Every structure is written in C-alpha cells, then in structure tokens.
Amino acid sequence: MGRRINLTSSRNVLIYAISSITGFLVATLITTSPLIGFPFGAISTTIPVVLLRRKSESDRKLLQSLWPEILDHIISGLQSGLSLAETLVGLGVRGPIKTRSTFILFSENLRSGMDFGRALEELKMQFDDGIADQVCEVLDFARLSGSRDTSLTLRTLSNFIRIDLALRAEIEAKHSWVKNSAALAAIAPWILLLLLASQPNTLRAYTSSAGLGILIVGAVLTAFAYIWMEKVGKLKEIPRIFA
Hints:
It is a multi-pass membrane protein. It is found in: Cell membrane. The chain crosses the membrane at residues 12-30, 36-52, 177-197, 209-229. Its main location: membrane. Residues 71-196 form the Type II secretion system protein GspF domain. By secondary structure, this protein is mainly α. It folds into two domains: 2-63 and 176-232, no CATH class; 66-165. The protein is 85% helix and 0% strand. It has eleven helices and no strands. The protein has helices at residues 2-31, 34-44, 46-65, 67-79, 84-94, 97-111, 116-127, 130-145, 150-196, 200-206, 209-232. Helix 8 packs antiparallel against helix 9 (150-196).
C-alpha cells in the first residue's frame, strides 16, 4: 500500500508540473513575456488540484448512493434464509459492480479464517466512509445479539440513508452556484489580462517591477479567494463516528 501511495503522489506531482509548464508556455506565447507567464504557470498548478478533488468527491458520492441498494440486497438475503455472513459474501457477486471487489476481499478474509468482527473492521477500512461505518456497526450488533429484527433495523437504516442523501444532494445543488461563481470570478481577470497583454502599453506596464509585483500579489489573492470560496460552498462530510 505504501508503494501505491508513493506512486500516486509521484503521478500527482508530475500532473501539477505539466499543468504549470503548460500554463506558463501558453501565457508566454500569447503575451510574448515570460514575466507574465510565471503567474499563469503558478495559477495553472491549481487546475489539476481542483479537478482531482472534484473527482474524489464525485467518487465518494457515487459510493454513498449505493448503500441503499446494498442494504436491499442484505435484507433480501436475510429474508430468504441466508446467514449474515453468506449474505455479505454474496454481495461480491450480486452487489453493485463498484463495490464487488471490496466484498470479494471480505469473503477471502472469512475463508482465510479471520473472525467475522475483524472482517467487518477490515470492510470499514476499505470503504473509508461514514455510512459504511454505520452499516457495519449495525451488522456487527446484529451478529452479537442474534436479533430477529435485523431486517427491520436495516430497512429503517436504509430509509434514513436515502433521506439523508437526498437532503445533502439538494443542499449541494444550491451550493453549486457558489463554486461556479468562485471559478468564474477567479479566472475572469486573468483572461482579461491575456487579451489586454497584446497591447504594447499593457505589456510594458506588467513587465516592470511594479507590474510584476501586482501580478504576483494577484495570483496569491486569486488562489486564496478561490480556496476560501470552495470551503464556504463545501458541505461537510458524514463524520466517521464508529471509525
């Protein structure tokens, strides 16, 4: 796992470097001034950061949206007479495609002799999600108590998850205009600078020491403002209470 993390970090650094160099070259070619190209290169570094972060958020939302379906599979298995372990193992074949590999690993842990409770802990670590923690805790409690109302409890939990996800989706949709406005406000002045830099007077102004200072300060303030707006418009993740 450590090697995989190192490879991912190295790949991200390479992506940031390519984005920065590309931004610098494009701005330099348009303005014919490397001094103006440097701030654009610095700002371009944030583009893959934003894209990777949004992809990560999108993947997390997709995974969370699958839990009601997973719970329906578990409830169906329990009602058909399967044990809890057999039901979870079956999710490696009949569950959502995105989560099958995780449940296959769970079944392999059980076959290797791992305790069911420990296998659930490993399952929580693999999902790394607040909703997964809640589901695994309910399943572990049902295993320890031998409750006959497990299906009813899981159905109630599924309804709560559906309501929570729907409410979060509605709030995030309303917050999306904040993120879009932040992106537009951050990029608009720099696009205008590229357009105006074709004029000799503008080029001379921003290639001076004072002009270069303004560009550097502007780049820093743009990055700070965008990060702040992203934080304001971001909904807090579901806490991992049982982690």
